[in-house]
Amino acid sequence: MPVIFGCTIILIILLQYKIKKNVKSKTETVQEFLQRELEANTTRRQDISGLAFQTVTLSWLPDISGVPDTDGEIAAVLAQLKRLEGKQFLNLSGISNTDLKLTYGAPNFPLLSACDANFTTFMRKLYELGLHLSEAGASDAAIPVLEYAVECGTDVGSTYRLLGSLYAKQGNPDALDALCQKAEALPETIQNSILTFLSGLRQ
Predict the structure, then answer these.
(1) Which of 11-25, 38-52, 136-150 is the least confident region?
(2) Sign (positive/negative) of CA torsion 67, 70, 74, 80?
C-alpha cells in the first residue's frame, strides 16, 4: 500500500507539472499572437503595385450554348460568374491575415482580403462550371474552363482531379504529365493527395 500511495502521489505531481507547463505554453503562444497582431495592425501602408492582380473576365469562355442544361445548374453558375466579372482577384492562399498586414500594411488589408475572396469564389465557380459541363457530356468545353483555373493558380484540388480524369479519358498522357508538374507547385497540404490521384490515372 505505501508503494502504491507513493506512486499515486508522484503521478499527481507529474500531472500537475504537465498541466502548468501546457498552460504556460498556451499563454505564451496567445501573448505572441497578440503581440504580432498589434504590430500588424499598426504596420504602415506598403507598395503593392508589384502584386499579380488580375481582373475577372469571361470573354475566354467556350461556346456552351448547345450544352443541355435541364436542371439549370450551368446557367446558375454562369450567373454567379457574371456577378464577379470586372472584379480584381489575387491568389493569396496560404498567407494569414496577420502576415498580410505585416507584409503589406494594415491599410491595404481590406483590398487584399477582398481580392483574395474573389479569387477563392472565382476558382470554385470555375470548378463547378467544369463539373456541370463534364456531367452534361461536354468534356471539350469543360477542359478549357478547368485549364484556365489551373493557369490562375487554383488550389481547389477537385479541379486537378477532374481535369486529370478528362485527360485520361481522352488518352492524353502529355497533358496529364504537364498537369502533374503544375500540381507540384501546390501547397504540401493538398499536393500529395492530388499527385497520388493523378499518378494513378497514368496506370
Answers:
(1) 11-25
(2) positive
Q: Is 136 or 188 the better-scoring residue by pLDDT? A: 136
| CA–CA distance, 40 with 22 (Å, rounded to integer) | 27
Amino acid symbol at 8: T
Residues in CB range of 55: below 8 A, 6 or more apart: 86, 87, 88, 89
The closest of 197, 132, 202, 142 to 166, measured between CA atoms, is 142
Q: Is the pLDDT of residue 16 over 80?
A: no
CA dist 188 → 83, 86, 155 (Å): 32, 32, 11
User: Could you give the CA distance from residue 49 to residue 27 in angstroms, rounded to a whole number?
Assistant: 38
pTM: 0.80
pLDDT bucket at 121, cuts 50 / 70 / 90: very high
Q: Can you tell me the distance from the alpha carbon of 84 to that of 152, in angstroms, rounded to the nearest whole number?
A: 15
Q: What is the grid cell recorded at 9? A: 502521489
Closest CA to 145 of 122, 121, 129: 129
Return the closest-CA partner of residue 109 out of 119, 120, 118, 98: 98
How far is it, in rounded angstroms, from Cα 20 to Cα 18? 5
